[in-house]
Specification:
182 residues, 4-stranded antiparallel sheet, mainly beta, Pnp Oxidase, Chain A, 3 helices
C-alpha cells in the first residue's frame, strides 16, 4: 500500500478537522476572545475540558489570572468573525468591542454573542506541552442557544458547528467552506 509521508510539523493535520470554538477570558478589567480548535472534553465526572493554548497568547494570561474561561462553539455564520479575531492580538486590539460580549452565568469571562453555545469553566490545572499549555478546566455551566436538541443533547442535523481543516479552510459536516485568503 502506498503512503504519503507527512512532515512531523504537520502531523497534527491528520487529526483535523477540529471543532471551531472561541475562548473568552477576562481579568484586571481586560476581556479577550481567541479562536481555538484544540479543545476537547476530558472527563464526565467531574465534567472537565482541555484546551491547548499557545504559551505566548494573551488569552492564556487572562485565564491564569482569573481562573475562569468560556468555550463557545460557533457555526459557519461566524467564520468571518473567527478569522478577524484570529488575525488580531488582544494586546493591541479590543476584541471584546469587536465581537460584543454576553454575560456568563457563573464565571466572569464572557460568552460570545451569536455562538451556538457557551460552556463556562473554572481552571483546575495547567500542563506545559511544547509551545502550548494544556488548560484543564471544570465545567460549571453550559447552555445552548440554537441548533441544539434538548432531548438528544446533540446538534440538530444540518444545523451545527463548523470545523477547522487548516489555514483558512473550514468544513461544515459534508462540505468544505473556504473563507478569504489561502
Amino acid at each position: 500500500m502506498n503512503s504519503i509521508r507527512v512532515p512531523l510539523r504537520r502531523a497534527y493535520r491528520l487529526l483535523h478537522p477540529k471543532l471551531v470554538t472561541v475562548i473568552g477570558a477576562s481579568a484586571h478589567g481586560e476581556t479577550n476572545f481567541m479562536p481555538a480548535s484544540w479543545v476537547m472534553p476530558a472527563s464526565f465526572d467531574p465534567p472537565l475540558l482541555v484546551a491547548a493554548v499557545g504559551e505566548e497568547r494573551y488569552t492564556l494570561g487572562l485565564i491564569l489570572d482569573s481562573g475562569e474561561m468560556t468555550v463557545n462553539p460557533v457555526g459557519p455564520d461566524l467564520i468571518p468573525l473567527v478569522e478577524e479575531l484570529g488575525s488580531l492580538s488582544g494586546r493591541e486590539a479590543d476584541k471584546a468591542s469587536l465581537a460584543g460580549t454576553l454575560a456568563a452565568e457563573k464565571v466572569s469571562a464572557p460568552c460570545l454573542p451569536g455562538a451556538l453555545a457557551c460552556i463556562e469553566a473554572r481552571l483546575r490545572s495547567t500542563h506545559p506541552a511544547g509551545d502550548h499549555v494544556l488548560v484543564v478546566a471544570e465545567v460549571v455551566a453550559a447552555r445552548a442557544w440554537r441548533c441544539f436538541d434538548a432531548e438528544t443533547h446533540a446538534y440538530r442535523e444540518g444545523c451545527g458547528p463548523v470545523y477547522h481543516v487548516g489555514g483558512h479552510t473550514y468544513m461544515e459536516p459534508g462540505r468544505y467552506v473556504e473563507w478569504g485568503r489561502r
